[in-house]
Amino acid sequence: MEYKDYYKILGVPKTASDAEVKRAYRKLAREHHPDRNPGNKKAEDRLKDINEAYEVLGDLEKRRKYDQLGSRYHEWQRMGGDPRGFDWSQFGGNVRVDDLGDLFGGSGFSDFFTSIFGGTTAGRRSGGRVRGQDVEQNIEVSLEEAYHGAKLTFQKNGKNLEVKIPAGVKTGSKVRVAGEGGSSFGGAPSGDLYLIVNVRPHDRFKRDGDDLSTETPVDLYTAVLGGETTVTTLDGTLSLKVPPETQDGRIFKLRGQGMPNLRDPHVRGDLLVKVHVRIPQNLSPEEKRMFGELARLRSR
């Protein structure tokens, strides 16, 4: 029977810590996962070896026994012993079962593993179980949908998914859909689907964090004498009080009329309203005369 070098399989030294062993395993398991290598028998066999190696090196008791075996085996070789004549029975497992399951299209573990550790899988942490990969997918929502929240329905692998988009999402926000990512291996959980949100630009509002900004026209007479004007918001309309002698370009802050905060929708940003004073057109002769009189009064 051939000796299997589990350290070499995972690409770690014999002095590797538990954390280093786990990192190496996860990296290799992702690289050789069936989702990345569909129909690749070589990758499938490699994944079997990777899981078997981690089953041993990731378990303190198994690793201790394996290190003892390795020391004896290499000493036997150094003394000129034929590897085929090595007495494996001194390290044999005390349990042998044949119901490991067909996890990888064959038996769960190699003959080497079952000869040393037996066939029991009690206490396994990996045991051929590889969690499905997380998957990312881009989606677009309108500013109104980002403001109010929305339910989006789309298809994934022939399956209709309805996903709730929370109020307050912004470009770059990730919405997690549990269990809808890559398929698993060996009965492990599936990966998750992460929807990467892109909020489409709006023709009326600009967004800065949770604040919104917009512009609204104000007629000359309201700007000069004061009054009220109507402001359109994502919730409808509001009345804005315009004080006398308001200058063109002045910005008014409407507190709490901006975007809801993603973490706390009850908290909202502000709406910044920039007013543009409209100059009246198509003046009548009388209106022109009155504006001229006003100009003469202002010049005194």
Characterize the structure shown:
The protein is α+β, with helices and mostly antiparallel strands. It has helices at 6-10, 18-31, 41-57, 60-78, 111-117, 143-148, 220-225, 285-299, and strands spanning 135-141, 150-156, 159-165, 174-177, 193-199, 206-208, 211-219, 227-233, 236-242, 251-254, 271-278. A hairpin with a 2-residue loop joins strand 8 (227-233) and strand 9 (236-242). Helices cover 30% and strands 23% of the residues. It has three domains: 6-117, DnaJ domain (Helix Hairpins, Orthogonal Bundle); 135-199, HSP40/DNAj peptide-binding domain; 206-299, HSP40/DNAj peptide-binding domain (Sandwich). The protein has eight helices and eleven strands. The relative contact order is 0.09.
Strand content: 15-25%
Structural class: alpha+beta
What order do the helices and strands follow? HHHHHEHEEEEEEHEEEEH
Largest sheet: 4 strands, mixed
> Distance N terminus to C terminus?
112 Å
